[in-house]
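Re: shikimate-3-phosphate structure - here you go.
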Amino acid sequence: MEEIIKLSPADGLAGTVNIPGDKSISHRSVMLAGLADTPVKVTNFLHAADCRSTIGCMRALGVTVEQDAAGVLDITGRGFYGLSEPYDVLDAGNSGTTMRLLTGLLGAQPFFSVMTGDASLRKRPMARVITPLAKMGLNIKGREESRYAPLAITPAEQVHGIEYDMPVASAQVKSAILLAALYANSPTIITEPLPSRDHTERMFETFGIPVKRIGSSISIEPVKKLTAPELINIPGDISSAAFWLVAASIIPNSQLTLVNVGINPTRTGILDVLKQMGADITITNERWSGCEPVADIVVRSAQLKGIAIGAEIIPRLIDEIPVLAVAALFAEGRTVVQGAEELRVKETDRLRAVALELGKMGAEITETPDGLIIEGPQKLNAAVCHSHDDHRMAMALAIAGTASQGVEIEEPDCVKISYPDFYAVLAGLRRD
Ligand code: S3P
């Protein structure tokens, strides 16, 4: 793909978007199917770089993953005790979910493994998974006193269940512990400071593993085998739909229908916030896709207003803050985001990147240690902006430029991480 992409202003967006498969659920489907002893078909799998990293790692552990012409996966697992020692270093690429979840799974296996990732992933904190996993008896070492990848994992003498109060709300940390807990010799109880996405818990239920939820705690008993479903249909990713929700809201003369959007309540903070900002959003055709709720969503242009986004909702919209910042620039009044310091340890420091790159378009955004302050509405100018090689930054910048005077984005092809067709879909929705 190009080194730079140029997007011009649009007079409106119209059409229907089939939302690509959920990234979080796609990862989990391959990991769990890899531990099953009967084959699993996965439809609407997200064929994007992050999920390909998980497929690559699971293949290296002996799992067969085949893909047909329509993109349907056929996964033949190795059974609960059947993974084999990889011949080489496992590469998680840019994917935090691949690295953190597999750390929990691999630490409970009776073999040696090493995991690494790209330059961004090697800078992201890993002690948050290594600390609780070490309490369970797992042996994981990493660079700089086990703070960063590469990670070297050696077999545990015994895997113990733990009671763990998580210091940060993180589905990746929770899921790493849950995966290791399956192999433990006693139950595990995890308590979250705020509810994070619960796709692992729901995927466990899909594979016949009971999960108990009591208040903010989750408890799980060790198992000996999984009972796999024949088919998993992955819902569309609300984090990908978020770009269209904001784009159609802020570009006058727009109406979009978003088909097959996952509306798991641990992910729908973006809908709550946009509605509170005055967005015209209608949720229709609610249904189930396995253990996950899905719906179609109609969104039309609306004048938004600024709001306060506080710490308690952040885990439910953690990946949507960059595009919400764009929405706030078009809203009347002040938007304040607080309690979002986790954004500083994503694919890039997203608080810094949002302020810096939208700033190049003339936006005045105040960056605080844990959030952003944005007074709207603001007039944006055409500019050359950098994606920081972060998929969600590139897509947020694309929406900001399309809704204003245009934008040129350097390093645009990082959208391949979660939404490979993003620019093509955007081009097809323009009314001009
Ligand atoms: C994810 C959890 C979130 C999210 C990430 C995907 C997952 O990260 O930001 O994009 O699949 O569990 P944290 O668990 O670090 O908050």
